[in-house]
Design goal:
This protein has 21 helices and 14 strands. By secondary structure, it is α/β, with parallel strands linked by helices. The chain has a five-stranded parallel beta sheet, with helices on both faces. A hairpin with a 5-residue loop joins strand 5 and strand 6. Bound molecules: D-mannonic acid.
């Protein structure tokens, strides 16, 4: 596949890249580390690292480079690419009209694999020049019980980390070791910035970290509570997994990059202005610092992320494969639109400068970009960690206010069908990636005997099973799905109700 003229991406070759590939508009050799980021996947590379790249290009301030950290073995593949490409990668934006723009991002300064050398990670985070430790560790990485919201103290990794503070496995152990070291060295603490899709992500992170520390050092917990800030933030950019085709297309364009990142043109970042150390002027390059992020987070999680889950789960049961295919099915487009209007919008708080109807229409147009090819498999990945954050708060608000929850119930019914059958209604097999896959499967299969057994999984659904209106509607949909009433038809009827 390699084209004759394709150039291996690294620092030495930067000036030889084809003209239509944007290069860093600053000297990558001089970028210094000011941020340590845990969880360098596609999203981080398309979002925070891109903002830092823009910042460096615009202001010439090269002190906010990012050192990546991988906590898990499966981060090793990313490290290899970083090492081979001098931490450079290509970001490809795919526009709705089929055009693409590719830029090389020079914001990353290195990549440390925590399991190889935990102390190196702790030392890096403790360097005075590092003023932010940011995180994209996914909803599941926060170690909270979805039904109670409390830290899971019985997690064997938590127990391991308390006994082995120098070789932790989880993010909490690293934050503690590094913050302790800074305190001992009289170095100002870093800001801990969550970039995950969780409502009040900063506060949740703070709560989990303090709950962890309180298990062994009350005094240090109080110090962290008083001295470290954890800004909430809303992050947004649709970033599908990179495919071999994406790599090949870039090679044909003249760049040999083993792991480019592809994304939509849209990006948004709203950050609570709460930093205990200096902060980068990200507001100069499109991010917003605000005093209260909550309404933005709520809007995005409940409209976009839950919207994705609606298309993901209902679309999977319908045998569809991508987000744009799902939103192209007129029944699903309408279902999603009505879901947003009738089930989500009544639960939202006003957001300054945003018209929710326009926001919805923009989402529908973002979802319909056919070049993104965002797979339903990616959307449905770890649904057990996502739905308690994206969908169930909306359901609870609606039940409390006596409003309709039918579309949400249909989504959960589709999830039950999907978890039981691991296949669409027309028998196409579906790959399930979820830490709770077995439990979900067993609970969903038992639905045949006890029609509420799926909803009884309290660690996922909390007390939803006690809500008679919701359960009745859920049971009705499950029955219809198993009777092979096509889910698109069910969707059409529900949306027209
Ligand atoms: C998606 C998100 O994981 C999901 O289910 O909804 O990854 C989504 O694409 C991003 O949050 C967009 O900002």
């Amino acid at each position: 596949m390699q084209s004759q003229t394709s150039i291996l991406l690294n620092r030495a070759n930067l000036s030889s890249l084809p003209n239509d590939i944007r290069r860093p508009a600053y000297d990558v050799e001089n970028v210094q580390t000011g941020i340590v980021h845990i969880g360098v996947g596609g999203f981080h590379r398309a979002h925070e690292a891109m903002y830092v790249d823009r910042l460096m290009a615009k202001t010439g301030d090269l002190s906010w480079g990012i050192c990546g950290v991988g906590l898990r073995e499966n981060d090793r593949a990313m490290k290899k690419v970083f090492d081979e490409q001098d931490n450079l990668y290509t970001l490809v934006e795919k526009h709705n009209d089929g055009s693409r723009s590719a830029s090389v991002i020079g914001a990353m300064t290195g990549f440390l694999m925590a399991p190889d050398d935990p102390q190196a990670v702790i030392d890096k985070m403790a360097e005075p020049e590092v003023r932010i430790v940011s995180l994209t560790i996914t909803e599941g990485g926060y170690n909270f019980d979805a039904s109670s919201g409390e830290f899971i103290t019985t997690n064997p990794d938590v127990i391991h980390d308390i006994e082995n503070p120098k070789t932790p496995k989880l993010v909490f152990g690293y934050l503690v070791a590094a913050l302790k070291k800074r305190k001992e060295n009289n170095v100002r603490p870093f800001t801990v910035m969550s970039c995950d899709n969780i409502q009040h992500n900063g506060h949740v992170l703070k709560k989990m970290l303090l709950a962890y520390i309180e298990l062994f050092d009350q005094a240090f917990a109080s110090w962290v509570d008083e001295n470290v800030s954890f800004p909430n933030s809303m992050v947004d950019r649709i970033t599908p997994a990179t495919t071999n085709e994406d790599i090949a297309t870039l090679w044909a364009q003249g760049v040999e990059d083993a792991w480019p990142v592809v994304c939509e043109p849209f990006d948004q970042w709203v950050i609570e202005d709460d930093f205990c150390n200096t902060k980068p002027c990200l507001d100069l390059v499109g991010a917003q610092f605000v005093s209260d992020v909550a309404p933005y987070e709520k809007l995005k999680l409940r409209m976009l992320n839950a919207g994705h889950s609606v298309l993901g789960l209902v679309g999977s049961v319908a045998g569809l494969e991508t987000i744009h295919e799902s939103v192209e099915a007129k029944q699903l487009k309408r279902l999603l639109s009505i879901f947003m209007e009738q089930e989500v919008m009544p639960t939202l708080d006003p957001v300054e400068g945003i018209d929710v109807y326009e926001y919805r229409d923009t989402l529908l147009s973002r979802f319909s970009n056919p070049f993104i090819k965002d797979t339903l498999a990616r959307i449905c990945l770890e649904s057990s960690a996502k739905l308690p954050v994206f969908l169930f708060p909306t359901v609870r608000d609606n039940l409390a206010a006596n409003r309709d929850t039918d579309i949400s119930a249909l989504v959960v019914a589709c999830w039950a069908f999907y978890s039981d059958r691991h296949a669409s209604q027309d028998g196409k097999s579906l790959e399930i990636n979820d830490v709770l896959a077995d439990k979900l499967h067993n609970a969903a299969s038992n639905n045949q005997i006890d029609s509420l057994s799926f909803l009884m999984l309290e660690e996922v659904f909390g007390k939803l099973v006690d809500e008679a209106r919701f359960t009745a509607s859920f049971q009705g949909f499950v029955e219809r799905l198993y009777q092979q009433e096509p889910v698109l038809l069910i969707s059409e009827k529900v949306a027209n109700n």
